[in-house]
Amino acid sequence: MIRSICLVSIFILTSGFALKAQEQNETITGIEPEGRMRRQALVIEINARVLSDEQDVVWTQYERRIAITGNPVGVRLVGSNIVVSVQFTPFIRRQGNVLVAQGQIWIENPGTGVSYYTSIQTIPMDFDEPLYFFPLGTSNASIQIQLTVNPYSEIASVENEN
């Protein structure tokens, strides 16, 4: 009983932080980068999808966001018995670009209560190369998030206006 209360408390506290980070990122997304920030700006394409047991796509969401290197971009997926909150933080470095993926998952199992899982991965990345993140692991690939990261350009700015 106490364990369930602790897990629910952690869920409430952590979801507040994830939501706050997501709101902060949406503010950055709405602003066109200028000057020095334009050189650090990136365009992240996020394609999240949920697959059935037969590997049919039952739900999909596509977003394009403007991000600044070193600042996280949050993705939150909410189902009937699961919440997936992932933050992707791109880092542009001379020795190689990386994307840090930090995931938090809350799953409600009938009879056993809420389970909480967390993961963090550092993924080498190249621009315009699709990256795949499986919040539930590759053995249970029913939730897939595909990302593509590119430098910000005027073309991305014009496409966002349309």
Can you walk me through this structure?
It is a single chain. 26% of the residues lie in helices and 46% in strands. The protein is an alpha+beta fold and 162 residues long. The protein has one domain. A hairpin with a 5-residue loop joins β1 and β2. It is elongated and about 50 Å long. The N terminus is likely disordered.
* Overall SS class: alpha+beta
- Compute the CA-based radius of gyration: 17 Å
Morphology? elongated
Query: What are the segments in which pLDDT stays under 50 over at least 5 consecutive residues?
Result: 1-31
Please tell me the total number of domains: 1
| Total beta strands | 8
Largest sheet report: 4 strands, antiparallel
- Average pLDDT value? 77
* Helix content bin: 25-40%
Indicate the proportion of strand residues: over 45%
Order of helices and strands: HHEEEEEEEEH
- Report the end-to-end length measured between terminal Cα atoms: 52 Å
Number of helices: 3
Lateral arrangement of strands in the main beta sheet = 2-1-8-7
Helix and strand arrangement:
Layout (H helix, E strand, L loop, with lengths): L1 H29 L5 H5 E11 L5 E12 L4 E6 L3 E10 L6 E12 L3 E12 L6 E3 L9 E9 L2 H8 L1
Antiparallel strand pairs: 1-2, 1-8, 3-4, 4-5, 5-6, 7-8
